[in-house]
Write a structure and sequence with these properties.
Distance between the termini: 82 Å
CATH topology of one domain: Arc Repressor Mutant, subunit A
Structural class: mainly alpha
Order of helices and strands: EHEHHEHHEEEEHEHEEHHHEHHHHHHHH
Oligomer: single chain
Length: 497
């Protein structure tokens, strides 16, 4: 069955994360698909915060989610910060709504109060596990009459509200995975907890209905829970939304991306590694899932992704991580992003990650722009800003801290002699280095290697001619002088010992 939008303005989708920690990469991917679908069909993209699990809340997390969506250009039409006609958009502020709807299901006989203690439930769970069975409630409180249930509740006895969920076949259609038939056999599940907060499944269904959500777009891990949602819709006599489940993110097509791994979270890519947001978005869609006319190796803007998006093209193959592909998109993004935007992003990354003892002059916008221009013109493999801090290009924002690297190839006396000769040059260029080599009766390539190491603390890197073109004569002299002092200090220490 293919999706055809009959009334575009009726398309309403939501991204509904729980504020329990950092935003997962899979969550960003889910938000992206929701956003593309909404914009493609002229609909609304809504952010809803599902914070009913009060024990796991992280303060400030919800606000960070909104900030992150903004970083990626995923503009919300309705959200806790933006507002909207269907709020509140934070579940903890919707308690009266859930209480009203649970009462409705109690009155209709689809739900009942369960007064069983946590100790009794724990005994049931352990007994099932010992027997090798799936733990489930034994429906003991189903037999409690409505009158007795009401009386016990009035007397302040603690209870949860359970939904009657007998073993049955539940059929539903998914726009990605097609016809789905599942044997649901989990027993009566809780919809309202003893603390008065709803469970995820109950709040999810109530909110989607009251917020007029037309399509539920979420990860495939929720396929197994969909029968619960379908039966809740039936109990309320509501028409379910369209379901769109997305393939999972995996390491290798089998192993799910672990929450213990740093690269499972969005912050790793943007804040730690410094990839541009458009590179990450393209990476998440790199197999062309949902993108018409997709061309591998092409960088698409967010507007282009919207224009090309087609829900009927979403495949069922799990997404696999591939760092080389991410670096490809990182390189493409760096070369296609406006200079002013690059400057802002690089400056922000350096402000957060640069060494505390860095020369402030190296953080001036004019100098940062020169670095960007140099890399754009000379380095095809630059992909992420952390390469300016800890990677191959860290020499731009940090001078060599010692002579250790130089001494891997030259003895201290030779190194000092080279530094002294270089410091006598009026101008730093290839001709001058060759003149020093001739003066010292050394091979030019050896003096060039020592000069490069003095400038960038590495024997590998850009050609020396490019480094001379970038660094001023004063900066070259400063770096070589620093190395000379380091060599002299090392010699004094050696003699003292």
């Amino acid at each position: 069955m293919r999706f055809t939008s009959r009334v575009l303005r009726d398309v309403r989708v939501r991204f509904a994360p729980s504020p329990t920690g950092r935003l997962h990469l899979g969550s960003l991917r889910t938000a992206l698909f929701n956003y593309l679908f909404a914009r493609k069909h002229g609909g609304a993209f809504i952010l809803r915060i599902e914070d009913t699990d009060r024990s796991r809340l992280v303060p400030g997390c919800a606000e960070k989610f909104e900030e992150t969506l903004g970083t990626f250009g995923l503009k919300r039409d309705e959200s806790p910060m933006v507002g909207g006609a269907f709020g509140p958009y934070t579940q903890s502020e919707r308690g009266a709504i859930y209480a009203q709807h649970s009462e409705r299901l109690l009155d209709s006989g689809h739900c009942y109060r369960c007064f069983c203690s946590s100790e009794r439930l724990d005994i049931l769970r352990k007994g099932a596990l010992r027997a090798g069975e799936l733990p489930r409630y034994d429906n003991r409180c189903r037999s409690v009459s409505k009158a007795e249930s009401d009386e016990r509740a009035r007397n302040g006895e603690a209870f949860v509200v359970r939904f009657k969920f007998d073993k049955q076949n539940v059929a539903f259609h998914d726009l990605v995975y097609g016809s789905n038939n599942q044997i649901a056999d989990e027993g009566d599940f809780v919809v309202m907890k003893s603390d008065g907060f709803p469970t995820y499944h109950f709040a999810n269904v109530v909110d989607d209905r009251l917020m007029a959500i037309s399509h539920v777009i979420r990860g495939a891990e929720w396929l197994a829970s969909t029968p619960k949602h379908v039966k809740l819709y039936e109990a309320f006599e509501w028409t379910p939304p369209n379901f769109v489940h997305l393939p999972l993110i995996t390491r290798d097509g089998k192993k799910k991306l672990s929450k213990r791994d740093a690269d499972a979270y969005v912050a790793y890519y943007i804040e730690e590694r410094g990839y541009l947001p458009v590179a990450v978005l393209n990476f998440l869609l790199r197999n062309g899932s949902g993108i018409s006319g997709f061309q591998p190796g092409n960088l698409y803007s967010l507007d282009e992704l919207i224009q090309r998006f087609d829900v009927n093209l979403i495949g069922t193959r799990d997404f696999m991580m591939d760092r080389s592909a991410l670096d490809t998109y990182g390189r493409l993004a760096f070369r296609s992003t406006h200079r002013e935007t690059l400057l802002q992003n690089v400056a922000k990354h350096l402000k957060t990650h640069a060494s505390a003892d860095i020369d402030p002059a190296l953080l001036e916008p004019a100098y940062i722009q020169r670095v960007i221009d140099f890399i754009s013109s000379n380095e095809e493999n630059f992909a992420a800003f952390d390469e300016l801090v800890t990677g191959d290009f860290s020499f731009f924002f940090g001078r060599p801290s010692s002579a250790a690297k130089l001494l891997e190839r030259f003895d201290a006396t030779t190194a000092l002699t080279i530094c002294d000769a270089l410091l006598e040059l009026e101008r730093f260029d290839i001709a001058g280095v060759k003149a020093v080599a001739k003066q010292l009766k050394m091979k030019p390539k050896e003096v060039m290697a020592a000069t490069r190491c003095a400038l960038i603390d590495s024997f590998k890197g850009p050609p020396l001619s490019e480094l001379f073109g970038f660094f001023s004569d004063d900066e070259c002299r400063t770096r070589i002088q620093f190395l000379k002092e380091s060599l002299k200090e090392g010699s004094v220490s050696a003699k003292a010992s």
